[in-house]
Amino acid sequence: MAPLWRALEQYRDRVAARPIAALFDADPARAEAFSVSAAGLMLDYSKTGVCAQGMAHLLALADGAGVEARRDAMFRGAAINETEGRAVLHTALRDPDGPPLVVDGVDVRPGIAGTLARMEAMAADVRAGRVRGAGGAITDVVNIGIGGSDLGPAMAVQALAPYHDGPRCHFVSNVDGAHVHDVLAGLDPARTLVIVASKTFTTLETMTNAATARDWMARAVADPGAQFVALSSAGDRAAAFGIPPDRVFGFEDWVGGRYSVWGPIGLSLMLAIGPERFRDFLAGAAAMDAHFRSAPLASSMPVLLALVGVWHAQVCGHATRAVIPYDQRLARLPAYLQQLEMESNGKRVGMDGRDLDRPSGPIVWGEPGTNGQHAFMQLIHQGTRVVPVEFLLAARGHEADLAHHHRLLVANCLAQAEALMRGRTLEAARAGLSAAALGGAELERQARHRVFPGNRPSTVLLYSRLTPRMLGAVLALYEHRVFVEGVILGINPFDQWGVELGKELAVSLTPLLEGTAEGGAHDASTLRLVAMVRADGVAPG
Ligand SMILES: O=P(O)(O)OC[C@H]1O[C@H](O)[C@H](O)[C@@H](O)[C@@H]1O
């Protein structure tokens, strides 16, 4: 790989001074040539510095890293999560009727299809009022989970609001008692279903919130267990919590937490939109899977998106990537992608146990547009750092009577992408000021502040509108992009050892805060802060 990286870096140095806009002048067909369509999505990456020759280098990198072989190994059920010795088969969840898929000697398809059928029966019963609370039909569902057991369903439930025709869904994740308190405060325990979502069923936050929710329910209904459901790989622990086996929806260790919305962890989404639309959501993802499996590297949307990402993060050294959906209902997508991308590729040691010799995956952040335009876009346009932007945009909204809103939304998204690339020269800034009747020294003083350097890269992911199917395709696209970037970096994107140390230290600090232990192997700053918290924020004497 080293010679391929070197060739790419040399190429980067050769084209460093070339503006993106010049690529359009040189190639009238650039907009089409640097776009790709799949599964109802269209990705335009023409407003980036990647050109045909750069792409050839990037594709050589993907090829050299063995992306295709690794992809095939993943879909085949090989144990590609090497640090945990596990297969990676969340893709099988969205293809429940696919051909036999044998993992450790067992065909996993019947289990997947069976669990999906049980979820569908449960969802249908709740939605039809056959599964009821002590006070009548279920009006509200509370999903208690964190990380992958929260971000996916919470994001998707919000994204698909126009399709809701089931009970209202709420999400509690934070161990901060304020979260569970505020969510439960507005609900009737006799008509609420609590979903405890935890792959391991040991996560501190979830277990703490689940116990609190059970106490809340027990104060109002005689049999709180009857209004609890568990989504977990650890059926025994769910049973110990008091949830009967027929209310436990299991999944295997080959489904990683941040890849789990496609299975039982998606139950809240299924309750909200119904089993049929949930199947559409799976089908959209399956369509992207089929594309990823069959398209050559050079026309594979996940591969191209990954290569643009590698160009920006590892080749050009841009440390962050902004994801800006011009789609208000995707407000939680950046948070979802933060887990997906940063927990997957935020690693400094490669699969071979050696330190990476280039940056890991980038910092991902974002907020919906147009809101971002009135907040952080200033820095992206005129700051000293380059922040590649990924825009997401629906051609149509769901609000037919508000089409003028949507036109303004689209115009703003496209304008941002254009402005980032084009910028505004000093001459243009001067002309604008003189048209505004400014001149002389004042004009010169003002003009430089109005210059936009331009040449700032962005991509646009366009889809017709955010249906369940489209959302499935978008999420699968991002999953595979993260996978391809991981393969190219030589990272295992499927473990997350970096979340462990803080958890262990929290366990040892809790007795100090309770006053049941003193000192221990903690630094002086930490111990002082503990003492101050115990003294209610007042500095210790
Ligand atoms: O589903 P759970 O086992 O409760 O895990 C919830 C989350 O916590 C862990 O700390 C990991 O960082 C996440 O990847 C995971 O999704």
TrEMBL record:
InterPro entries: G6P_Isomerase (IPR001672), G6P_Isomerase_C (IPR023096), Phosphoglucose_isomerase_CS (IPR018189), SIS_dom_sf (IPR046348), SIS_PGI_1 (IPR035476), SIS_PGI_2 (IPR035482). GO terms for molecular function: carbohydrate derivative binding; glucose-6-phosphate isomerase activity; monosaccharide binding. It comes from the Bacteria. Keywords: Cytoplasm, Gluconeogenesis, Glycolysis, Isomerase. GO terms for cellular component: cytosol. It holds the Pfam family PGI. Gene3D superfamilies: 1.10.1390.10, Glucose-6-phosphate isomerase like protein, domain 1. The keyword Cytoplasm applies. It is found in: Cytoplasm. The keyword Cytoplasm applies. It catalyses: alpha-D-glucose 6-phosphate = beta-D-fructose 6-phosphate. GO terms for biological process: gluconeogenesis; glucose 6-phosphate metabolic process; glycolytic process. Pathway: Carbohydrate degradation; glycolysis; D-glyceraldehyde 3-phosphate and glycerone phosphate from D-glucose: step 2/4; Carbohydrate biosynthesis; gluconeogenesis. NCBIfam families: PRK00179.1. Catalyzes the reversible isomerization of glucose-6-phosphate to fructose-6-phosphate. Belongs to the GPI family. This is Glucose-6-phosphate isomerase. It comes from Rhodobaculum claviforme.
